[in-house]
């Protein structure tokens, strides 16, 4: 009898639509603002795009060739969950030589499917539902949504153009509550191009220690700095054990599509992340790992050549925006300029949409990157000098037209 | 040579039409400095000429190019210089290199057709007293020249917008 009643109750809760099957987290998640703009730009062939967050160089040939050779030799198997030991070894050497942080390849380095997986693993390993995760904004679009998916509560901390979008100790302090647990930082920054120096990090490190926070430091753009060397947060006094250093091969070695990343942290954190990784991903693809190994061993010259090219284009685009009359802080890292379009009176969304429709230039509206992004555009200068020059000319004509309206 | 001149040279090598102003912005120096450096390099024959790299196979009156390995007897006192000069002064000769290895000079010759190149080798080059032997190789297709790939396959395949 009871069974029948249960059955009839079940019938009454029949789901009305497919959406009702979705988990609340997936249902409430908004599509990325970049995605929205991508749909607007998709299919148009006549546009110059400054909207691309990846190098315009193809992965250097020696790296691709190493992968092709490995495939010919039949390297198609699983690797160990944490990644090929020789790759972890090489990542350890690289971080030590470049950024002065020493990690034990056997226990403190985990190879992941892109930096994105590393961040997801870190958050899933750390968050107890209700924990507050501090995120300086404008920032990479994924941090807040994946925090929410893990049950955390993202708390934005606004950064400002007049501070070159650096995180300030007082802003960090003001955002901290007893529920704060993790701080996610990304310097050099996507989308602003802001960087943090040793002196900038010192007071931040103090606040982190005093408030017992763990930091996920996304250093994917570490190689792309201009004039000053990247300072890894993990290399700051007292910070190594509190930091999960996340990086990868996408930006420095032009390897976006390979999806090769890594995380470095205290053995207990890596061990927890490894457990999630082995049940969900198993291991990063071997062909990507072989390519990454080749990039680390022999990729320095090509990498330096690309960085030099970005630097030249960076000067070109910043100079261009200033000539047009748009304020633009000097980005010192990554490959984005983040000019202000506030003087035009339009919102980021309005400006970007009209720029696309009326001048055939695609740039991402700054508001999609969170607080402090409104009134700005993200313009990637990972594109050819000719395209950049043409884009600047078109934007200049568009801004003149706006003034005349 | 100064680092600035090297960088200017590299930028001009990529595209000789770049203006001094554009180069100045890219290298964070003044346009006057760039102009000065270029003038000096022209004066010193570091910059020899501004030319166009053409893919002649796309043009109707396609030219024929041959690489000729030449063995010669060096002259007393002048070595290979005199013979090289006699050869490179012919307008159909596009380049001449002194080589290590099995032969001495590598001569690149361009002509309207096969006959013209063959005639140059038999009537001009081979009869020179010091020339011991020649081996002629015709270029069938140029894939890459001066670091420039003619049929560029690596077009930008990125999505118009990405994170």
TrEMBL record, chain B:
The keyword Mitochondrion does not apply. The keyword Metal-binding does not apply. InterPro entries: AsnC-type_HTH_dom (IPR000485), Dimeric_a/b-barrel (IPR011008), HTH-Siroheme_Decarb (IPR050684), Tscrpt_reg_AsnC-like (IPR019888), Tscrpt_reg_AsnC/Lrp_C (IPR019887), WH-like_DNA-bd_sf (IPR036388), WH_DNA-bd_sf (IPR036390). Residues 1-81 form the HTH asnC-type domain. Signal peptide: none annotated. It holds the Pfam family AsnC_trans_reg. Keywords: DNA-binding, Transcription, Transcription regulation. It comes from the Bacteria. This is Lrp/AsnC family transcriptional regulator.
């Amino acid at each position: 009898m009871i069974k029948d009643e249960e059955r009839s109750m079940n019938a009454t809760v029949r789901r009305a639509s497919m959406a009702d099957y979705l988990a609340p987290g997936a249902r409430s998640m908004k599509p990325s603002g970049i995605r929205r703009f991508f749909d607007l730009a998709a299919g148009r062939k006549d546009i110059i795009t400054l909207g691309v967050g990846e190098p315009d160089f193809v992965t250097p040939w020696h790296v691709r060739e190493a992968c092709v050779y490995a495939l010919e030799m039949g390297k198609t198997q699983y690797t160990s969950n944490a990644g090929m030991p020789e790759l972890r070894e090489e990542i350890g050497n690289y971080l030590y030589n470049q950024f002065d942080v020493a990690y034990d390849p056997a226990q403190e380095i985990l190879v992941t499917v892109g930096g994105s997986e590393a961040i997801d693993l870190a958050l899933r390993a750390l968050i107890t539902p209700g924990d507050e995760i501090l995120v300086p904004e404008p920032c990479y679009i994924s941090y807040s949504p994946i925090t929410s998916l893990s049950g955390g509560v993202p708390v934005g901390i606004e950064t400002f153009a007049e501070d070159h979008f650096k995180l300030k100790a007082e802003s960090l302090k003001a955002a901290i509550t007893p529920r704060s647990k993790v701080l996610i930082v990304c310097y050099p920054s996507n989308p602003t191009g802001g960087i943090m120096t040793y002196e900038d990090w010192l007071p931040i490190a103090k606040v982190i220690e005093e408030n017992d926070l763990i930091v996920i430091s996304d250093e994917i753009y570490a190689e792309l700095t201009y004039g000053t060397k990247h300072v890894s947060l993990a290399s700051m006094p007292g910070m190594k054990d509190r930091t999960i250093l996340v990086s990868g091969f996408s930006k420095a070695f032009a390897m976006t599509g390979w999806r090769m990343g890594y995380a470095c942290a205290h053995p207990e954190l890596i061990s927890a992340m490894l457990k999630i990784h082995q049940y969900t991903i198993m291991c990063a693809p071997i062909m990507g790992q072989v390519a990454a190994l080749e990039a680390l061993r022999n990729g320095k010259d090509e990498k330096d050549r690309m960085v030099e090219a970005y630097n030249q284009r960076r000067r070109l685009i910043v100079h261009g925006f200033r000539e047009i009359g748009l304020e633009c802080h000097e980005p010192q890292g990554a490959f984005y300029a983040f000019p202000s379009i506030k003087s035009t009176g339009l919102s980021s969304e309005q400006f970007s949409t009209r720029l696309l429709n009326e001048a055939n230039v695609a740039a991402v509206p700054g508001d999609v990157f969170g607080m402090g992004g409104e009134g700005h555009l993200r313009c990637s200068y990972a594109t050819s000098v000719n395209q950049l020059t043409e884009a600047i000319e078109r934007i200049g004509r568009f801004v003149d037209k706006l003034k005349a309206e | 040579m100064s680092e600035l001149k090297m960088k200017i040279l590299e930028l001009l090598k990529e595209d000789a039409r770049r203006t001094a102003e554009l180069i100045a912005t890219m290298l964070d120096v003044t346009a006057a400095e760039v102009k000065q450096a270029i003038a000096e390099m022209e004066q010193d024959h570091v910059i020899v000429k501004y030319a166009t790299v053409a893919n002649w196979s796309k043009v109707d009156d396609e030219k024929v190019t041959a690489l000729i390995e030449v063995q010669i007897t060096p002259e007393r006192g002048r070595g290979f210089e005199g013979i090289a000069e006699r050869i490179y002064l012919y307008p159909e000769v596009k380049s001449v290199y002194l080589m290590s290895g099995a032969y001495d000079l590598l001569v690149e010759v361009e002509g309207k057709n096969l006959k013209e190149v063959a005639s140059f080798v038999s009537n001009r080059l081979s009869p020179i007293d010091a020339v011991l032997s020649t081996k002629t190789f015709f270029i069938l297709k140029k894939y890459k020249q001066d670091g420039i790939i003619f049929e560029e396959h690596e077009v930008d395949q990125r999505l118009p917008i990405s994170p």
